[in-house]
Description:
By secondary structure, the protein is an alpha+beta fold. Helices cover 40% and strands 14% of the residues. The protein is built from seven helices and six strands; from the N terminus they run αββαββββααααα. The protein has a six-stranded mixed β-sheet, with helices on one face. β4 and β5 (99-106) form a beta hairpin. α3 runs antiparallel to α6, α3 runs parallel beside α7 (265-280) and α4 packs parallel to α6. The longest helix is centred in the middle third of the chain and has 26 residues, at 174-199. It is elongated, with a radius of gyration of 25 Å. The model has no long low-confidence stretch (mean pLDDT 92).
Amino acid sequence: MRTEREMLDLILNVAKSDERIRAVGMNGSRTNPNAPRDIFQDYDIVFVVTDIESFIQDPEWISVFGDRIIMQKPEEMKLIPPSMDGNYAYLMLFTDGNRIDLTLCPIEKKDHWNGGDRLAVVLLDKDRSLPRLAEPTDEEYRVRQPTAKLYADCCNEFWWVSTYVTKGLWRKEILYALDHLNIIRGMLVKMLEWQAGILTGFSVSTGKNGKYLKAYLPESSWDQLLGTYPKGSYEDGWRALFVMTDLFRSTAREVASKLGFAYPAEDDRRVTAYLERVQSLEAGASEIFGSDFTI
């Protein structure tokens, strides 16, 4: 596997030898002093170029970076619509395991080549025309303290969508149930991130998809979170749902206590009773609540 020095030398040499490439920038985890270093870190590179169309019309020019396992060109895709912001990207995974996400940025956009991302550094500026950047920081990616409204919305979304999970499990529609389980897990993770923010003074980033979250949570909370991933059976789906509601409840109550918010205890009580009632229903039942059931 080529080393970081070898990869950066290659990237810069390609740029130096091509007059159309006027500047090179890098962003992403390799510019973040707080990100763990490992073999899977991408090289998020931006070439500021003249005549961007000449690159696009020559699909072989990128072969200089090495033999590829696979490549994706987002601007050419129909299934996943591109952003169409004037840039053009090549996402490349090479046979030695390295990956470059290379974006061509038209020189007319040079003042905004990094899209405002503060995790960015200039590697080469032939014309000394790029704006001066501050030291890279992950500050904008850190967990932010929620407002009372954001907190209330998160709770509402969690308890509302949990009823969809129950419906899917009772109907034996496993894909529907699991999709909605993923939605409420997103709300749970958001609440756990706020808990992590409280514990760290809102000074850390939990990373994309919460990948660093484990480092900032009590071990018991992390273990419960892992328990919300079912194995594909309906029985395990029910188990995961109630593990999730238990963890959401305890975490949301703690966040509310620390931030001076009101936890929607009545929504919790009523919805939990509903979930438990639906779980107890026999297949083919014609109604949810009998005359002997009260919330």
